[in-house]
Each structure stands twice: as structure tokens, then as C-alpha cells.
Write a structure and sequence with these properties.
Layout: H1 11-15, H2 19-28, H3 42-57, H4 61-67, E1 72-81, E2 87-98, E3 104-111, H5 116-133, E4 138-145, H6 153-167, E5 176-180, H7 186-198, H8 228-244, E6 252-256, H9 260-271, E7 275-281, E8 284-287, H10 294-304, E9 314-316, H11 318-322, E10 328-331, E11 350-352, H12 361-369, E12 373-375, H13 377-380, H14 383-397, H15 403-428, H16 432-451
Parallel strand pairs: 3-4, 3-5, 6-7, 6-10, 10-11, 11-12
Antiparallel strand pairs: 1-2, 2-4, 7-8, 8-9
The structure holds nicotinamide-adenine-dinucleotide (NAD).
Length: 455
Amino acid sequence: MKSQSSKTGHGGSDRAEPVEQMVEKLIESGTDVTTTPVKRSLYQNVVEQFNKAADLLRLEPDIRRILSMTKNEIVVNFPVRLDNGGVKMFTGYRVQHNDALGPYKGGLRYHPGVDQDEVRALASWMTWKCALLGLPFGGAKGGVQMDPGDYSLAELERISRRFVYALGSNVGPEYDIPAPDMNTNAQIMAWFLDTYLSTVPPAERHRHIHVVTGKPIVSGGSAGREKATGQGVVFAIQKWAEDRGVSLDGLTFMVQGFGNVGSWAARLLVELGAKLIAVEDVTGGTRNIEGIDPGALLEWMGMHRGVRKYRGGQFVDHIMFLKTKADIFIPAAMENQITAETAPWLDVRLVVEAANGPTDPAGDAVLAERGIEVIPDILCNAGGVTVSYFEWLQNKRSEFWDLEEVDRKLWRKMSTAYDRVRDTAGEYETDLRTAAYIVAMTRLEKVYKDRGIFP
Ligand code: NAD
């Protein structure tokens, strides 16, 4: 199982003021340090993005109050027997942000950085993403705080199964439907399904296979789900290029993160004639301005567990990677990668946010000032949840759609959302991120106005 723990030296938090100094300052200013967060939270990024759009839209204050909070936050501590015979306690999270548009939907992440704040932010972005794409889902996210690289496959299976069991009735096919995210995959979704079904009476099991999406195809998965997020990213880039009359042929791009999303986006873009010139993953970076073959790189990674020493390119450190001159940068790894400190280093025309939350608000401001365009995460990485919706529908109807049908439907969804965001950005004279929030918020505002607040 692959391991992608956070690398030191990346992200805003590594360069932030030391916590001790911050605490000292807070104590001097008379602030209660026991309740004031001393580290910038990811959820704070969401709140700032949300507030900017809500102000511009003049979102009704009551609805604003509702949407600025999560609905349910579940924390589970559960024991798992390790291969050495000992028992270890794990902490898992599921945050359900909003279900006004339909059942909660969102991925599960295995990473040491998973905590309530991170999951809260990721769950909120799912609400906006589903609303933006017009999917009948609300937003949720979950995960287990751990480095999967520290565990054997058998241990990962026991951790996954025990996590599902601990979540119990907090998930369900018509209530909250998980999917893969960072460090989780179709195999883990298969364990999830099998464990969940074991808790359901035998006669009802066949009616519950849509409790999770991103499953292996033989277990009820959808054609095209594995590549869906990368495919959606490429569709968004095609829309951007079409709008500007730019040809993708020969356009250069760099990718941070070469897992599911990054590697699929790279393969599909290269098929359209673009040139991949730099890649970074958790092990380091590689660069070749003559072009990197994504297939060959993946083959290398299969044998060497990372891009760092790839023979088809030259090693680059994090700063050199970020300073690479290219047309497009696709962050497809962690959050908070483009900050006030790193944004000035980028030498690109367009940032395509395949990852969730790769740009913090300060980084966003620098990009805007420098004229670097951004296709925001809630728009461009929505291909994953869109094909998850297709999988959920196919399961409910006992149907199986072929890849051509899935891709055609995905293109329509992505293309419509892109057009709406671009037009809204024009109407409100704002950036694409704020416009994407406005489109999503408008939909949710209407639902709350129609239904009112019980009682
Ligand atoms: P993955 O686990 O398949 O791959 C993650 C990649 O990021 C790996 O190559 C890893 O080495 C790299 N990475 C991790 N930490 C890094 C660091 N500090 N510096 C550089 N590289 C680092 O995960 P994924 O499913 O491809 O998800 C990537 C991003 O896309 C996440 O933000 C996730 O939330 C988002 N996303 C995923 C999906 C999906 O369907 N899988 C859908 C929407 C959004």
C-alpha cells in the first residue's frame, strides 16, 4: 500500500510563526490561549472563501448562518489488532456538512494530517461541489488519522473494516455515501462494502450496494470512476482553452502529486498533445523540459515507490519544482501548497486545482495580483463525485453504463458547470472561485427559501 505522509518544508504551516511565539503573543494580548486556535485552520480558508461569495451575493443572513456550520461531526476511536499481536487505538472522523440537496456524499482519507478541522473543511467543499454540479447530494468527508505506509495490507484491511463498523448507522446508501480520497482506493471501498453489508439482514443486502462508490467494477463500480477526477480536470482545461482560443497541443504543464488524480490528468492531457515537464510527489521532484512520458513514469514508480530518482528526468527540490516555467500548474496532492510565500515563485499562466484546497486565501490574492488564472477545486475536481453519482444511480437501477456513456455524461455536467461559473464571474465581475461559490449558494439558498425552517 502506498504511503503519502506530509513532507516537511511544504505548505504554509511549516513556515508559520513558531507556535510558542504565537502563544506568547496571545498571552500578552490577554487572549485565552486554551480556546484560541494558534495554527491557521483549513476550515478558516473555507470560511473566508464562503464569506467573500456570500457578501457579493448578499446571501440572506439566516441562510448564511445555517450554511456556515456543519450539521454533524462524528469522531470514533476504535481498536485494531496489529500483526505483532498488540492492539492499537485509531481515531476516525466523519463530518456531515449539509444535506439540503440530498444524502451526504464525500470521500475517506487515510493520512496523518486528518483531523476534525481538515475533515470539516473538506466536507464543506463537498457541499459546494455537489450543489455547483447540480448533483442531488449534500457534503461530507471522513478519514482515519494514520500513515497507511506504516501498516501491512492485512492491517489496513482490519483498520478499514473496523472503521466502517465504528461508523455504524452514521453512513448508509440513502444517508451518507463515502468514496475514495487520498490514500484510499477501490480495494478499500470493497472492504467497506463487504463490512457494511455484513451488518444488514441477508435479504436486504442487494439493495445496499450503493452505500459506497469508487468500488471495483465487479463489485458494482462504474466504468470511468477511477479516472473520473483526472478526466474532469482535463475537461475543465479544455473548456478554458476553448474560451481563450488556445490549443492544448504543445502546451507545457507540471503536476504536484502523481496518485490517482494527478497521474490520470497527466495521461489524458498528454494524449491531447500537451507536454508534461515536471512532476513532484511526496518523495521529491523530477523535471525534463523535453517532456516526461506519464506511462513510463508510472511504471518506474511501480518499482521505485516515487518519482524522486526517475531516470527520464533530473531531480528538482521543492522550490526548483515550483519555479519551473510552464503554461499550467496542476496541484493534485495536498492542501495549502500555494501560499503568500510560494505563489510568487510560480511561473505559469494557469493553476488548475485538482487537489482540494491547494491555494490558501493569501496565495489566491498573490496569484490574482500576478494575473495567474485559477480554475478552482470545487469546479475542476468535481468529476470524481459526478461519476460517483453515476455509480450510485447505476446501482439503484441495476444498470451498467459503458465508458463512452459515462464520459459523455461527465462532459455535459462539467461543461455546463464551467459555463455557469464563467458567466457568473462576468456578471458579478469576480474570480472563478467566488463565482463557483455563488452558483452553488444560489441553489442552496433557493432550497432553504422554498422549504423554510422547521418548525
Ligand atoms: P492519492 O493518494 O492517489 O495521491 C496523492 C499524491 O500526492 C501522491 O502522488 C503523493 O505522493 C502526493 N503527495 C502527498 N503529499 C505530498 C506532498 N507533501 N508534496 C507533494 N506530493 C505529495 O490521492 P488522490 O486521490 O489522487 O487525491 C489527490 C488530491 O485530489 C487530494 O486533495 C484529494 O482530496 C483530491 N481529490 C481526489 C478525488 C478522487 O476521486 N480521488 C476527487 C476529488 C478531489
